[in-house]
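Key idea: predict the complex, not the pieces.
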Amino acid sequence: MSERAIPLSDDKATRYSDLVVEVAAVVAGETSRTARYATTISLLVSAFDDRFFWCGFYEVDPLKPEELVVGPYQGTLGCLRIPFGKGVCGVCASRRKTIIVPDVHAFPGHIACDSRSNSEIVVPVFDRSGRLIAVLDVDSTKFAAFDEIDARGLERICSAMMSG
Ligand code: SME
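Result:
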Protein backbone atom coordinates (compact mmCIF):
# COMPACT_ATOMS: atom_id res chain seq x y z
CA MET A 1 0.00 0.00 0.00
CA SER A 2 1.92 3.06 -1.18
CA GLU A 3 -0.89 5.61 -1.38
CA ARG A 4 -2.54 6.99 1.76
CA ALA A 5 -6.22 6.20 2.22
CA ILE A 6 -6.80 9.87 3.13
CA PRO A 7 -4.70 12.64 1.48
CA LEU A 8 -2.61 14.70 3.93
CA SER A 9 -4.24 17.97 4.99
CA ASP A 10 -2.20 21.19 5.21
CA ASP A 11 -3.76 21.84 8.63
CA LYS A 12 -1.93 20.00 11.42
CA ALA A 13 -5.00 19.38 13.62
CA THR A 14 -6.96 18.04 10.63
CA ARG A 15 -4.01 15.86 9.68
CA TYR A 16 -4.08 14.31 13.17
CA SER A 17 -7.85 13.79 13.02
CA ASP A 18 -7.51 12.03 9.66
CA LEU A 19 -4.67 9.91 11.06
CA VAL A 20 -6.82 8.84 14.02
CA VAL A 21 -9.37 7.43 11.56
CA GLU A 22 -6.66 5.82 9.43
CA VAL A 23 -4.83 4.18 12.36
CA ALA A 24 -8.08 2.79 13.82
CA ALA A 25 -9.11 1.38 10.42
CA VAL A 26 -5.74 -0.23 9.67
CA VAL A 27 -5.23 -1.92 13.08
CA ALA A 28 -8.87 -2.99 13.64
CA GLY A 29 -9.04 -6.59 14.83
CA GLU A 30 -5.24 -6.98 15.01
CA THR A 31 -4.17 -9.23 17.89
CA SER A 32 -0.45 -8.36 17.84
CA ARG A 33 0.55 -5.30 19.84
CA THR A 34 3.82 -5.11 17.86
CA ALA A 35 1.83 -4.90 14.62
CA ARG A 36 -0.24 -2.03 16.06
CA TYR A 37 2.87 -0.15 17.21
CA ALA A 38 4.85 -0.63 13.98
CA THR A 39 1.89 0.36 11.79
CA THR A 40 1.23 3.50 13.81
CA ILE A 41 4.89 4.57 13.59
CA SER A 42 4.88 4.08 9.83
CA LEU A 43 1.73 6.19 9.37
CA LEU A 44 3.01 8.93 11.71
CA VAL A 45 6.45 9.23 10.13
CA SER A 46 5.06 9.35 6.60
CA ALA A 47 2.58 12.06 7.67
CA PHE A 48 5.12 14.23 9.52
CA ASP A 49 8.49 13.36 7.98
CA ASP A 50 9.66 17.01 8.12
CA ARG A 51 9.53 17.11 11.94
CA PHE A 52 9.72 13.47 13.13
CA PHE A 53 13.45 12.62 13.18
CA TRP A 54 13.00 9.69 15.59
CA CYS A 55 9.63 8.14 16.35
CA GLY A 56 9.00 5.00 18.33
CA PHE A 57 7.61 3.18 21.32
CA TYR A 58 9.27 2.27 24.59
CA GLU A 59 7.25 -0.54 26.20
CA VAL A 60 6.87 -1.25 29.90
CA ASP A 61 8.87 -4.46 30.39
CA PRO A 62 6.49 -7.09 31.83
CA LEU A 63 9.49 -8.66 33.62
CA LYS A 64 10.67 -5.30 35.06
CA PRO A 65 7.58 -3.14 35.59
CA GLU A 66 9.65 -0.03 36.46
CA GLU A 67 11.68 -0.19 33.25
CA LEU A 68 11.00 0.70 29.60
CA VAL A 69 12.43 -1.36 26.76
CA VAL A 70 12.59 -0.16 23.18
CA GLY A 71 9.87 -1.34 20.80
CA PRO A 72 9.15 -0.61 17.14
CA TYR A 73 10.71 2.67 15.93
CA GLN A 74 11.96 4.54 12.89
CA GLY A 75 15.13 6.61 13.10
CA THR A 76 18.73 6.24 14.17
CA LEU A 77 19.83 3.79 16.87
CA GLY A 78 17.88 4.34 20.08
CA CYS A 79 18.95 3.24 23.56
CA LEU A 80 17.46 -0.10 24.55
CA ARG A 81 16.32 0.45 28.14
CA ILE A 82 15.18 3.46 30.18
CA PRO A 83 14.29 3.18 33.90
CA PHE A 84 11.11 4.94 35.08
CA GLY A 85 11.99 8.46 36.22
CA LYS A 86 15.04 8.80 33.92
CA GLY A 87 15.12 10.92 30.77
CA VAL A 88 11.99 12.36 29.21
CA CYS A 89 10.53 8.91 28.49
CA GLY A 90 11.09 7.66 32.04
CA VAL A 91 9.59 10.80 33.57
CA CYS A 92 6.56 10.48 31.27
CA ALA A 93 6.14 6.85 32.36
CA SER A 94 6.33 7.82 36.06
CA ARG A 95 3.90 10.74 35.73
CA ARG A 96 1.64 9.08 33.15
CA LYS A 97 1.31 12.48 31.48
CA THR A 98 2.40 13.87 28.11
CA ILE A 99 5.63 15.89 28.24
CA ILE A 100 6.64 18.51 25.66
CA VAL A 101 10.33 19.50 25.76
CA PRO A 102 11.15 22.50 23.49
CA ASP A 103 14.91 22.18 24.16
CA VAL A 104 16.15 18.75 25.24
CA HIS A 105 19.54 20.19 26.24
CA ALA A 106 17.77 22.11 29.03
CA PHE A 107 15.91 19.03 30.37
CA PRO A 108 17.70 17.61 33.44
CA GLY A 109 18.64 13.97 32.83
CA HIS A 110 17.73 13.93 29.15
CA ILE A 111 19.12 10.79 27.49
CA ALA A 112 20.84 11.83 24.26
CA CYS A 113 20.63 8.85 21.89
CA ASP A 114 21.39 11.09 18.90
CA SER A 115 22.95 14.52 19.42
CA ARG A 116 20.99 15.89 16.46
CA SER A 117 17.72 15.77 18.47
CA ASN A 118 16.80 19.19 19.82
CA SER A 119 13.18 18.89 20.95
CA GLU A 120 10.92 16.07 21.96
CA ILE A 121 7.40 14.98 22.94
CA VAL A 122 6.56 11.84 24.89
CA VAL A 123 3.00 10.52 25.27
CA PRO A 124 1.84 7.73 27.63
CA VAL A 125 0.07 4.73 26.07
CA PHE A 126 -2.64 2.92 28.02
CA ASP A 127 -4.38 -0.37 27.34
CA ARG A 128 -8.16 -0.62 27.34
CA SER A 129 -8.23 -1.13 31.10
CA GLY A 130 -6.23 2.08 31.65
CA ARG A 131 -2.92 0.39 32.50
CA LEU A 132 0.28 2.08 31.26
CA ILE A 133 1.85 -0.23 28.65
CA ALA A 134 4.26 2.04 26.74
CA VAL A 135 5.25 5.58 25.86
CA LEU A 136 5.40 7.10 22.38
CA ASP A 137 8.62 9.12 21.93
CA VAL A 138 9.01 11.59 19.06
CA ASP A 139 12.23 13.59 18.61
CA SER A 140 12.94 16.43 16.18
CA THR A 141 16.11 18.08 14.97
CA LYS A 142 14.18 21.38 15.19
CA PHE A 143 13.85 23.28 18.47
CA ALA A 144 10.29 23.66 19.83
CA ALA A 145 8.89 21.38 17.13
CA PHE A 146 5.90 20.23 19.23
CA ASP A 147 2.92 22.01 20.74
CA GLU A 148 -0.45 21.23 22.33
CA ILE A 149 -1.92 20.25 18.94
CA ASP A 150 0.74 17.53 18.70
CA ALA A 151 0.07 16.49 22.30
CA ARG A 152 -3.68 16.08 21.83
CA GLY A 153 -3.24 14.57 18.35
CA LEU A 154 -0.69 11.96 19.47
CA GLU A 155 -2.76 11.08 22.55
CA ARG A 156 -5.79 10.46 20.31
CA ILE A 157 -3.68 8.37 17.94
CA CYS A 158 -2.35 6.22 20.81
CA SER A 159 -5.89 5.70 22.01
CA ALA A 160 -7.11 4.79 18.48
CA MET A 161 -4.14 2.43 18.13
CA MET A 162 -5.30 0.41 21.14
CA SER A 163 -9.01 0.38 20.20
CA GLY A 164 -10.90 -1.95 17.91
N1 SME B 1 15.37 11.19 24.43
C1 SME B 1 14.88 10.14 25.21
C2 SME B 1 15.68 8.89 25.08
C3 SME B 1 15.23 8.05 23.94
S1 SME B 1 15.84 8.51 22.48
O1 SME B 1 15.85 9.87 22.21
C4 SME B 1 15.42 7.57 21.25
C5 SME B 1 14.71 10.49 26.66
O2 SME B 1 15.43 11.32 27.23
O3 SME B 1 13.83 9.91 27.23
